[in-house]
Amino acid sequence: MLIMNRYLRQHLKIIIVAVILISGGLLLGFNLKDINHKPGDGNLSEFRNASSGRSVDLKKEVQELKIYDTWTHYTTKQGLPSDKINCVRVDGDRLWIGTDKGLALMEGNEISNVYTKEDGLAHQNVVSIEVSPTTGDIWVGTMGGLNRLSAGKFETFNQFNSGMPNDVVYQVYCVDKYVWVATGGGAGCYDIYNKQWKIFTEQNAPMHEPWTYGISGGDGKVYIAAWGGGIIEYEMETGQMRDYVDPDEEMEIDLFPDDGIVHDITTGSSYSEGILWIGTYFGMSRYDGVRWKGYFDHDSGLASNFINFTKAQGSAVWLCTDNGLSNFNGETWITYRPVENSKKGEVIVTKGETKKTIITGSTLSNNFLWGMDFQDDILWIASAKGLSKGEASGKLMAKAD
Which residues contact 203 (CB under 8 A, 6 or more apart)? Predict the structure, then answer.
């Protein structure tokens, strides 16, 4: 009976929405193909709070964006163990690079060391790297366990020798004395002082299954990206948890725009200046603690709905997708991708309905991107075919007009 009631409610909701949209479309003259997100000019500087009807001014959150028009590539020719770069992490003037064939260290724009299983890596496929702000240790997530690199020596954590939830570690996040991991068997939190693990799965957390894909945090909270379960928010001081999911419960479309996360299959998140950015395989969400806003590749400047990695920078965000790199500050989108069969690149600047394409002499090494990090004004991008270093000459302006 409960299943039937839920089934009827769900389909009744769809029928009601369809009737409203059809009748509204006839009266207002819009095409039903525009149903899935056509939010005016997409400008976040002012929009209406649906609950109060008030206009909300967000101009104070907008930060200036740069155009990165000078790119340098690093591959096996420069000493990397592989061209398939899974992740990058800045560590002061050093850069840690995770590949499918080991961990590399770059110093002074040159590869100074490569670490493999023979050196103590838990697995050669490195998918996440984090630097502890407390100890300076390097934490490495691999497809076969978690490593701590301290004083030149590797220590391995796995299901057999510790309380880790699973050996497949998709992302690592360090805060204070804690090391958080998102794994194929749930999220884990390791206390480096008392050397104890705490595990979060569907047994003790609001997630549908124990597959967690990303983890981030800020302002005393940790955000767990749970596959099919949206985002789990963990309050570090109280231990309280809550989940953010797509309220319309539709997996095929975002039935009710801006009612919550655009989709429950989340790949990661990033928090900065009071804004939580959430990447999914079906678009991106922005949450400021009160309002939700969704973005898709067909109604904004987003490179692709298929988002592999999300990284906030101030009040803006960077998104690594399967079809290029996007940067967004709430008003303007800048998307980077290689021009097909060329060494040149295209930079697409989008603001509302206005779009401008700029051709640059160099570009990303590939359009399928796995991760990124910042080193002052330099971008480091992990791609399926090499590491890219991006710099802004200052000659190009991020304007769509």
Answer: none
